[in-house]
Amino acid sequence: MDEALREAARAYVEGDWAACLGLLDAVDSTTVNHLELAYLLGLVHARLRNWDTALLYLEQVVTGSDEFLKVCQCRLSLSLIYSLTGRSRLAEYELGRLVAMGFESPQTCSGLGFAAWAQGKTDEALSWYGRALDLDPENPTALNGLGYVLAASGRDTSTALAFCRRAVAKNPGNAAYLDSLAWACHRAGREDEARDLLARALTLAPEENEILDHARELGGASRFQDGAT
User: H helices within the chain, ranges in order?
Assistant: First the structure.
């Protein structure tokens, strides 16, 4: 690997996104493997939430590279970007390709569960989250996802509560997990607990749309935000 790319890769591993991007911008693209450059540019732009630019570079690696692990990492990044930007079918496609390549993991299965739920495919979402837990029974993302789908779909409120509580126990500072548990509590008629949990979630993520929507449904977002400050 070119020395400049090596320095940029080191900055990326250390979490210094700005330094990594600065080093990459200074690389002479005519003297290095353009797929190596695209790989790092795609990853760092994804970290910086420059979604469109990240997609441009990540797609180059996916379509042009024969390095299995790099292609898998880029497909995972693509699926995450598509999920975050509301393109669930594209996220589902990338994750499905990973599974077909033999890269089945709690992360890919949970991602497929999320994508299926976003498209209104409840049974498929439950199946994928269940598969993720088969692979890792303590995976917090899968616990949270399965619990939320069970609660939101009205399938099994008591089981939903149990799964969501386990997810929150593993990461009490995760706003999404707190929101899922709040919604499971609401579905179970535990309104006071639901409001307390939503207030905590809003403190951590005051601009998250889904949490705000839940707060509005349970009595007004401003009320929760006032109570959390």
Answer: 3-13, 17-25, 34-47, 51-64, 68-84, 88-100, 106-118, 122-135, 140-153, 157-170, 175-187, 191-204, 209-217, 221-228
Best CATH choice for the domain 1-103 from the list 3.90.76.10, 1.25.40.10, 3.40.50.620, 1.10.530.10: 1.25.40.10
pLDDT 10s digits, 16-48? 999 999 999 888 777 667 899 999 999 999 999
Q: What is the DSSP letter of 105?
A: -
Provide the 3-class DSSP secondary structure of residue 180: helix
CA 110 – CA 190 distance, rounded (Å): 27
Architecture of domain 105-229: Alpha Horseshoe (1.25)
Residues of the chain with pLDDT under 70: 1, 31-32, 220-229
